[in-house]
Specification:
mainly alpha; Heparan-alpha-glucosaminide N-acetyltransferase domain-containing protein; HGSNAT_cat
């Protein structure tokens, strides 16, 4: 539970302090929404064959803009867990009630992820049990339970233990059958573990980026967000919070870089160095937004992020539904994205620029239902 320092004054004054601490941060709400928008941009280009390098996932080792989107979202999920459950605990809601809510919310998010995997054919013979939403569901469940039963120091130690254990497992345990340690695609211990224990098909045939073992370090990413949320809930001054968050971000990114020299930064394996680098960058981004938006009051431009973030998972799901129309259906033998690409490239536009422009247009299309839901005060809580 959020710890409060006892001060002289009435119970109403004490409650007022807590309410001030647990009020929603505009910066956090906006960042969560902007992250969803970024997911749509990188998932739905005009053409998969024409994409700027940094808008692609790195083939293996390395770090692009696209590689950072998923860990940022998990980081902000962690921060949101701290805010949501500190408030609920203070309201006196029992842990047993919260456990039920956490379980069913995780189940709903996982189910939505499975529906996306099955669309549009619903071929259960080639079902894939993992995916972005499935990982979010599992990580949210584990981290929310952790938050209710541990303090921030214990959470920090758990995250450190997960990162170190994962590093030792991947660099010290030989891949069975190979007789040596391997970190290449499809032949490492992570892929071997999935081949033995992950049912269904895998995204890459012999391996899956949302693997069982890499979910361990995904939990660590979310924990770093919980620690950031705990900092924001503390009684430190706003300026102190920014200083702590920005300093932690710098040191985390630097530590991840140097760890990456021995254990490469790799999103597909979600390596320990990848966690530190991306969590460091996410902390820096959070700190900068918090300073500009919540401290300085510069909220101009945050509204689109808030609108997307209000129904984040629902809009992510809806984007996949829209994609069936814009990518799968043929109009005169050509899909809408192909018509768009042909139209712009025929007048001399660079194919990569046209592809990016289409992705941004697709974001705007998804913004319309997001805006309507927000305006009608409809919040779909998955």
């Amino acid at each position: 539970m959020l710890q409060q320092t006892k001060r002289p004054g009435s119970q109403q004054q004490t409650k007022g302090v807590l309410q001030q601490q647990t009020k929603r941060l505009v910066s956090l709400d906006a960042l969560r929404g902007f992250t969803i928008a970024a997911m749509i941009v990188v998932n739905y280009p005009g053409s998969e064959d024409h994409v700027y390098f940094t808008l692609r996932h790195t083939i293996w080792n390395g770090l692009s803009f696209t590689d950072q989107v998923a860990p940022y979202f998990l980081f902000f999920v962690g921060a949101s867990i701290a805010f949501a459950y500190a408030k609920r605990l203070d309201e006196g809601i029992s842990r047993s009630t919260l456990y039920k809510k956490i379980f069913f919310r995780s189940l709903k998010i996982y189910a939505v992820g499975m529906i996306l995997n099955l669309m549009p054919d619903f071929n259960f013979h080639a079902i894939r049990w993992t995916g972005t939403l499935q990982r979010i569901a599992v990580v949210f469940f584990i981290c929310a339970i952790l938050y209710l039963n541990t303090n921030w120091k214990q959470q920090a130690w758990i995250a450190a233990a997960l990162l170190i254990s994962y590093w030792l497992a991947l660099t010290c345990i030989p891949t069975p059958g190979a007789g040596k340690v391997m970190l290449e695609p499809g032949v490492n211990i992570v892929a071997w573990f999935d081949s033995k224990f992950l049912p269904g098909t895998m995204w890459r045939g012999t391996w899956d980026p949302e693997s069982i073992l890499s979910t361990v370090t995904s939990v660590a990413t979310c924990i770093t967000g919980m620690l950031a949320g705990k900092l924001m809930l503390s009684q430190k001054s706003p300026e102190e919070k920014v200083n702590y968050l920005m300093t932690a971000g710098v040191f985390s990114a630097i530590a991840g870089y140097f760890w990456g020299l021995a254990f490469p930064v790799n999103e597909n394996l979600w390596t320990s160095s990848f966690v530190l680098v991306t969590s460091g960058f996410a902390a820096l981004l959070f700190g900068a937004f918090y300073f500009l938006v919540d401290i300085k009051g510069k909220t101009k431009g945050t509204k689109p992020g808030i609108i997307f973030g209000a129904n984040a998972i629902a809009i992510y799901f809806l984007a996949d539904v829209w994609a069936l129309i814009f990518y799968e259906f043929k109009f005169g033998g050509t899909s809408l994205n192909e018509k768009f690409m042909e139209g712009l490239t025929s007048v001399g536009a660079d194919a990569r620029f046209a592809s990016l422009l289409y992705a941004l247009l697709f974001v705007c299309i998804n913004f319309i239902p997001a805006w309507w839901l927000y305006r009608k005060k409809i919040f779909i809580k998955l």
